[in-house]
Write a structure and sequence with these properties.
The structure is a single chain. The protein is built from three helices and seven strands. The strands form two sheets. Strands 5-4-3-7-6 form a five-stranded mixed sheet. A two-stranded parallel ribbon has the order 1-2. Helix 1 runs antiparallel to helix 2 (47-71). The chain folds into two domains: 5-76, Transcription elongation factor, GreA/GreB, N-terminal domain (Helix Hairpins, Orthogonal Bundle); 78-157, Transcription elongation factor, GreA/GreB, C-terminal domain (Chitinase A, domain 3, Roll). 38% of the residues lie in helices and 26% in strands. The chain has 159 residues and is an alpha/beta fold. The protein has helices at residues 9-38, 47-71, 126-131; strands spanning 5-8, 73-76, 92-97, 103-109, 120-122, 139-144, 147-157.
């Protein structure tokens, strides 16, 4: 089974920063909250204790999730790739809707990095899958909820 997780350099840094925050700030805080709640007596009816334990469970799960992703990470630095004009993981694509002339810009990123509001598309999203492998100048049909839209790939940037 291939468990490689593709991510950009920025995505790896964000995960490492989150991991550092969870381990050095959040985990000690929740351990302290559990200890404090224990001092209040009967644990069966202690809501603070149960909330802190639930928070601890979430933090430990997230730490394991991030460590797993980082251990299987395949860091892709597009700035070091040959600039062929092809859409690949990590590239930024400038598209123009052939009907409305509206311009859109997307960066193809890993699943954990995706944020449509910031123009970051998950490599596994339908739009990204339609774009990957295409080149500058190609016309791409992309299915969206309201139908199929035709886009011109105006520019592929390796930034």
């Amino acid at each position: 089974m291939n468990n490689r997780v593709p991510m950009t350099i920025e995505g790896e840094k964000a995960l490492r920063d989150e991991l550092r925050q969870l381990k050095s700030v959040e985990r000690p805080k929740v351990i302290e909250a559990i200890a404090e709640a224990r001092e209040h007596g009967d644990l069966k009816e202690n809501a603070e204790y149960h909330a802190a334990r639930e928070q601890q469970s979430f933090i430990e799960g997230r730490i394991q999730d991030i460590e797993g992703k980082l251990s299987g990470a395949q860091i892709i630095d597009v700035t070091k790739m040959e600039k062929t004009g092809k859409v690949v993981f990590g590239t930024t694509v400038r598209l123009v809707n052939t009907e409305t002339e509206e311009e859109t810009r997307y960066k193809i990123v890993g699943e954990d990095e995706a944020d449509i509001k910031k123009g970051k598309l998950s490599v596994s999203s339908p739009i990204a899958r339609a774009l990957v492998g295409k080149e500058e100048g190609d016309v791409v049909l992309i299915k969206i909820p309201s139908g199929t839209v035709e886009f011109d790939i105006e520019e592929v940037q390796y930034i």
